[in-house]
């Protein structure tokens, strides 16, 4: 695959069907996920953003619709912890091997526990970052969940 990323390579190895979609990434956008959804003509609820968090000091990954915000209380509960905070961007980049705005739950440098917002499971197809700014992967949320051995939980505020 031309322009392969660790995320696309991960999905190919896992034999997960996906379609790559490129769009013009706008680093100045206040809400990157909403800008990406608009750029590819997808409802924001079907574009899943990847947020790196720390639960009781341990790294984890939360995947939720682009038009939703995280509830740190729910994130902590989803991972069996007491408290959760957003991971600083520089730390997230070192841990995942991706740049912010391009972080994917797939093919991270150091795999961490992943949770998907329960609402995301209601769609046949969603878009998830493909490992670089301007690249989204269209795939079944159930296939993504299985490939990552992820959990489903309410994560949104």
Could you characterize what this model shows?
The protein has helices at 6-13, 32-40, 72-78, 89-96, 141-148; strands at 19-22, 47-55, 58-65, 84-86, 114-117, 126-129, 135-139, 151-153. By secondary structure, the protein is of the alpha/beta class. The longest helix is centred in the N-terminal third of the chain and has 9 residues, at 32-40. The mean pLDDT is 94.
Keywords:
alpha/beta; globular; 157 residues; 5 helices; single chain; 8 strands; 25% helix; eight-stranded mixed β-sheet
Distance between the amino and carboxyl termini: 38 Å
- Secondary structure: number of strands: 8
**Range of helix content:** 25-40%
Mean pLDDT over the full residue set: 94
Give the overall shape: globular
Summarize the structure.
By secondary structure, the protein is an alpha/beta fold. The protein contains 5 helices and 8 strands, in the order H-E-H-E-E-H-E-H-E-E-E-H-E.
Write the layout of secondary structure elements.
Blueprint: H1 6-13, E1 19-22, H2 32-40, E2 47-55, E3 58-65, H3 72-78, E4 84-86, H4 89-96, E5 114-117, E6 126-129, E7 135-139, H5 141-148, E8 151-153
Parallel strand pairs: 2-6, 3-5, 5-8
Antiparallel strand pairs: 1-7, 2-3, 2-4, 6-7
């Amino acid at each position: 695959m031309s322009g392969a990323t660790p995320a696309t390579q991960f999905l190919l190895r896992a034999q997960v069907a996906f379609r790559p979609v490129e769009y013009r990434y706008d680093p100045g956008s206040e809400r990157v996920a909403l800008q990406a959804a608009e750029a590819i003509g997808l409802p924001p609820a079907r574009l899943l953003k990847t947020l790196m968090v720390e639960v009781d000091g341990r790294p984890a990954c939360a995947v939720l619709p682009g038009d939703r915000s995280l509830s740190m209380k729910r994130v902590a509960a989803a991972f069996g912890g007491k408290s959760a905070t957003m991971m600083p961007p520089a730390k997230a980049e070192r841990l995942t091997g991706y740049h912010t705005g391009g972080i994917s739950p797939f093919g991270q440098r150091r795999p961490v526990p992943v949770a998907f917002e329960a609402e995301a499971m209601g769609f046949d197809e969603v878009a998830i970052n493909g490992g670089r700014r301007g690249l989204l992967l269209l795939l079944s949320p159930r296939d993504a969940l299985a490939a990552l051995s992820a959990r489903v939980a309410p994560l949104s505020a």
